[in-house]
Design a protein that fits this description.
alpha+beta, Umud Fragment, subunit A
Length: about 240
């Protein structure tokens, strides 16, 4: 600030920034924003889209979720180590995890068995530790009860009764009882007749579980038939809802 002889004040001249200085400031701002975003998505929250109907009617195709990655212990980028978990996954919780069969693919299902549980299905009803489980969230259809050879291949060695496994012939709606091994979980989709889940490929290792859905931040029905789909196809009632 400069003061003139007549007592008035004048603004001090500021040299204009060169194009290189302006570009460098933009680069610094962008790098800082990217680092913050990288840390948030790596350690705290991740976005996830529901691509299939295996979790209907709890989660619908076109739901977009925020997933809490810190709850079960977020994985540190590059080094591959995990931070301490706030707590362990529990029965009936919905979890997002790394696919057992397809590297790089994330999957969402519900935990129905934790380490030490004895689980089975009888006529499409879950039996856990000898008791029928009332699953209000489960959707059961009237389709058939197919037998898939993949089920017997992995289930036979986990049967609670190991005396004779030769006669064991599991089907989609009738199988077990199986004992969940340590550090593993058993997951299924809520849409029981339309879910490719643990019944086919086995137990889910604890190290594959990444997080728990926080909320649905957007939901869009791509099959909407009304005009102005950018408004009418949005499931407004699901926006900011919490899946249970």
């Amino acid at each position: 600030m400069l003061t003139k002889s007549d007592g008035t004040k004048d603004q001090q001249a500021v040299a204009p920034k060169s194009p290189a200085q302006v570009a460098w400031e933009w680069v610094k701002s962008l790098v800082i924003a990217l680092v913050i975003w990288f840390m948030l998505t790596s350690l705290l929250v991740q976005a996830f889209r529901i691509p299939s109907g295996s979790m209907e009617n709890t989660l619908l195709v076109g739901d977009f979720l925020f997933v809490n990655k810190a709850l079960y212990g977020a994985e540190l980028p590059i080094v591959g180590k995990r931070l301490p978990a706030f707590r362990e996954p529990r029965r009936e919780e919905i979890v997002v995890f790394d696919s057992v069969e397809d590297p790089g693919i994330s999957v969402v299902k519900r935990i129905v068995g934790v380490p030490g549980d004895t689980i089975a299905m009888e006529d499409n009803v879950l039996i856990r530790n000898g008791e029928r489980v009332e699953e209000e969230f489960a959707v059961r259809g009237n389709t058939g009860d197919p037998r898939d050879p993949r089920m017997r291949r992995w289930q036979a060695k986990y049967l609670a009764d190991h005396d004779d496994t030769r006669s064991y012939r599991p089907t989609l709606k009738n199988w077990g009882p199986l004992v969940v091994p340590p550090d593993s979980f058993f997951v299924m989709g809520d849409n029981r007749d339309n879910s490719y889940d643990g019944r086919y490929w086995g137990f889910l290792g604890r190290d594959r579980i990444r997080g728990k859905p926080l909320l649905v931040y957007y939901s869009y029905d791509k099959h909407g038939v009304f005009p102005l789909p950018f408004l009418t196809a949005v499931r407004w009632r699901r926006v900011f809802s919490r899946p249970h």
